[in-house]
């Protein structure tokens, strides 16, 4: 039961009817329409809806007319403590630095209560800690969690699970409560210095260790993590500081000991190193906990190893002359056993190299000899690898590279640098230089760098040409006489002898071909062969050029004439006398719908289909009535022939039309027949309005038509 509505007009006789409308009317709230009692049909939840707005009215039960104006009333839902506090964000994960002071704030938790905070203590929450003491505490009003101990050490305990409770009704008995879990992790700070587990270490390193290789590791322990445990290792003293080095592996935080110089057991058998490990990221708040570094001593013992033979040089360079006989000694390599045993050494050429087939080596002495005859001009350098091993232990092998240079001897005569095309002009003068020649030699500059040029003395005297050695490894070809004639002799041959300055000197003979050509006054070659043929015909060069120019001009005129003939167009109008009788075709596209809208197209159709006749210049054509079988309108009586004549007269008198006749097509098929149209498109009457008996008088050709439209019975029926 909620309340009762009552109207002053209600006499208790049941004539008044109460009506309830608004939020929840008929579903949540129902009313007794006679007594006005309002009841709720279900439980109400304030957290879902705090109030309802309803409208009530009293009406006459018989007439349904309102007895009073409609009234509004509000039903408010009163809260009770039916909702427990809730932590909407839990569970929580939070961190706090280790060694923090007591009372350091960790996290603030907040619980919410859906009850009405303005009514009683239903929504008044108090916080308390159920688990996590004595390490942490919580403020009962604000929910702030704080540390409760001094110097909490992460290395002792890192993770804590704290349970916080929130209770309403101000924590009184009967209040509802909710809880959440807060996982607290202590983060690391650099509060622990590094420490070596031992103060003395010992390391064994064989003397065969390669320079630059890692020979050992050492590590100092640090209880901290992350960057707080980063450290750097250094060698602070010791007799091995120049032989060994140390570096820090950032991933494993180990000191990597590497070899800087080769070890020799026979010279020094042990080394001592003092190594320091120190943190790189210091926290000065904890400097009172001691120096954040530690020192240890490392003793390195060098192990004796049976080493391979050691060559006296890291590489060898030898020389041998080309064309030397097979078995010629090139040079000797030498290796010794570095161990105290001083075992004998055997030599051999590494067969994996490509040039091993050209040389041999004495296994006992290390002497390298030639196995083939060499040509420096083909291959001037050879690279081989010589290996040495101990007789007592063949598995220990050492290698050394050997480069062999092939020395040059004068075994190639000089020759012309290229094939020269020597030309002499017909108008040449005596002593004129017509060509400068050079020579090349496959031998190096030590054998044949200086060339000598001369004519073959065994041949008779040459009256036409001579040669002059310029003493700079070039020679000049000179003329001996004035004027040369192609008609007499067009080609001359000049043998040239070339010798080098090697020991012994070598020489070769080459023949130059000299052509006689016609030249301009400035020495430019005009022709060497073609003019000789024309000269016999008696034509000069100027005459030949004039003839060719005339031929070119004539060809140009002919081509121009043909082009003009082809490009000439036919006239649009053939005869000037019959201009108006010709149909001229223009290859132009029409304007589409614009052309059809430019004039009245009705004039070109059947005059009977036009609603009205439009005449130009207000000229009305004469209309002659034609005898019709049936009466029709005045439009149907127009004679098309007269209509066309009228249009032609108007066109002749109109100054705006073109000054020549035009062909106009009228889409008209002539007068309708006496029988009228057989189409139903233009027919405005029915079959019952017309008499088709006259079709039977037209003859047998229209018999079928008479059967269709007349009243005569068909032959099929009879």
TrEMBL record:
InterPro entries: Cadherin (IPR039808), Cadherin-like_dom (IPR002126), Cadherin-like_sf (IPR015919), Cadherin_CS (IPR020894), Cadherin_Y-type_LIR (IPR000233), Catenin-bd_sf (IPR027397). GO terms for molecular function: beta-catenin binding; cadherin binding; calcium ion binding. It is a single-pass type I membrane protein. It comes from the Eukaryota. One of its GO terms (biological process) is homophilic cell adhesion via plasma membrane adhesion molecules. GO terms for cellular component: adherens junction; catenin complex. Keywords: Calcium, Cell adhesion, Cell membrane, Cleavage on pair of basic residues, Glycoprotein, Membrane, Metal-binding, Repeat, Signal, Transmembrane, Transmembrane helix. Signal peptide: none annotated. Residues 7-87, 88-196, 197-311, 312-416, 416-533 form the Cadherin domain. PROSITE patterns: CADHERIN_1, CADHERIN_2. The chain crosses the membrane at residues 543-564. Its main location: membrane. It is found in: Cell membrane. SUPFAM superfamilies: Cadherin-like (SSF49313). Cadherins are calcium-dependent cell adhesion proteins. This is CAD18 protein. It comes from Urocolius indicus (Red-faced mousebird). The lineage of its organism: Eukaryota, Metazoa, Chordata, Craniata, Vertebrata. The gene is Cdh18.
């Amino acid at each position: 039961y909620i309340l009762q509505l009552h109207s002053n007009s209600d006499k208790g006789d049941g004539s008044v009817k109460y009506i309830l409308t608004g939020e929840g009317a008929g579903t949540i709230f129902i009313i007794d329409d006679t007594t006005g009692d309002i009841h709720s049909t279900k439980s109400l939840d304030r957290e879902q809806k705090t109030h309802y707005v309803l409208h009530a009215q009293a009406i006459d039960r018989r007439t349904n007319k309102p007895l009073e104006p409609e009234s509004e009333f509000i039903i408010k839902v009163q809260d009770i403590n039916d909702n427990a506090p809730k932590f909407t964000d839990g569970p929580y994960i939070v961190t706090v630095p280790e060694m923090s002071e007591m009372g350091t704030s960790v996290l603030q938790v907040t619980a919410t209560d859906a009850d009405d905070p303005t009514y009683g203590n239903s929504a008044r929450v108090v916080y308390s800690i159920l688990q996590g003491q004595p390490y942490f505490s919580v403020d009962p009003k604000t929910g702030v969690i704080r540390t409760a101990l001094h110097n909490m050490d992460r290395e002792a305990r890192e993770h804590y699970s704290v349970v916080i409770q929130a209770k309403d009704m101000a924590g009184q008995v009967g209040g509802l409560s909710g809880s959440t879990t807060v996982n607290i992790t202590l983060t690391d700070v650099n509060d622990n210095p590094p420490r070596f587990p031992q103060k003395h270490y010992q390391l064994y390193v064989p003397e065969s260790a390669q320079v630059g290789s890692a020979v050992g590791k050492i590590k100092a322990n640090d209880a901290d993590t992350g960057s707080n445990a980063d450290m750097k290792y250094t060698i602070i003293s010791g007799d091995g500081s120049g032989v060994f080095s140390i570096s820090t592996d950032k991933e494993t935080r180990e000191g990597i000991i590497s070899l800087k110089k080769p070890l020799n057991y026979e010279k020094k058998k042990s080394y001592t190193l003092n190594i320091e490990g120190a943190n790189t990221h210091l926290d000065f708040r904890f400097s009172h906990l001691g120096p954040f570094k530690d020192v240890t001593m490392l003793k390195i013992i060098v192990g004796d190893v049976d080493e391979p033979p050691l060559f006296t040089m890291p590489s060898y360079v030898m020389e041998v002359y080309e064309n030397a006989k097979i078995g010629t000694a090139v040079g000797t390599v030498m290796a010794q056993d570095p161990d105290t045993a001083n075992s004998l050494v055997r030599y051999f050429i590494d067969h994996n190299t490509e040039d091993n087939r050209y040389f041999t080596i004495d296994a006992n002495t290390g002497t390298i000899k030639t196995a083939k005859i060499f040509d420096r001009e083909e291959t001037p350098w050879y690279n081989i690898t010589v290996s040495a091993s101990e007789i007592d232990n063949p598995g220990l092998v050492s290698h050394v590279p050997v480069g062999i240079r092939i020395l040059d001897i004068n075994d190639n005569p000089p020759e012309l640098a290229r094939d020269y095309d020597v030309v002499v002009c017909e108008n040449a003068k005596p002593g004129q230089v017509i060509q400068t020649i050079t020579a090349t030699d496959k031998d190096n500059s030590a054998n044949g760098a200086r060339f000598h040029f001369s004519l073959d003395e065994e041949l008779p005297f040459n009256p036409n040409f001579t040669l002059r050695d310029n003493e700079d490894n070039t020679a000049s070809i000179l003329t001996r006489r004035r004027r040369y004639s192609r008609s007499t002799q067009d080609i001359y041959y000049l043998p040239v002898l070339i010798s080098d300055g090697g020991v012994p000197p070598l020489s070769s003979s080459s023949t130059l071909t000299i052509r006689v050509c016609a030249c301009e006054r400035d020495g430019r070659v005009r022709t060497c062969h073609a003019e000789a043929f024309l000269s016999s015909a008696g034509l000069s060069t100027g005459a030949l050029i004039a003839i060719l120019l005339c031929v070119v001009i004539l060809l140009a005129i002919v081509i121009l004439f043909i082009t003009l003939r082809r490009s000439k167009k036919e006239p649009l109008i053939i005869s000037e006398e019959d201009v108006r009788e010709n149909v001229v075709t223009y290859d132009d596209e029409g304007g589409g719908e614009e052309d059809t809208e430019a004039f009245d197209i009705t004039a070109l159709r059947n005059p009977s289909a036009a609603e009205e006749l439009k005449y130009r210049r207000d000229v009305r054509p004469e209309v002659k009535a034609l005898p019709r079988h049936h009466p029709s309108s005045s439009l149907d009586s127009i004679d098309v022939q007269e209509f066309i004549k009228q249009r032609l007269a108007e066109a002749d008198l109109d100054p705006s039309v073109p000054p020549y006749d035009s062909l106009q097509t009228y889409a008209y098929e002539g007068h309708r027949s006496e029988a009228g149209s057989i189409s139903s498109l233009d027919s405005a009457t029915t079959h019952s309005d017309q008499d088709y008996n006259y079709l039977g008088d037209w003859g047998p050709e229209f018999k079928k038509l008479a059967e269709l439209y007349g009243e005569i019975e068909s032959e099929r029926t009879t």
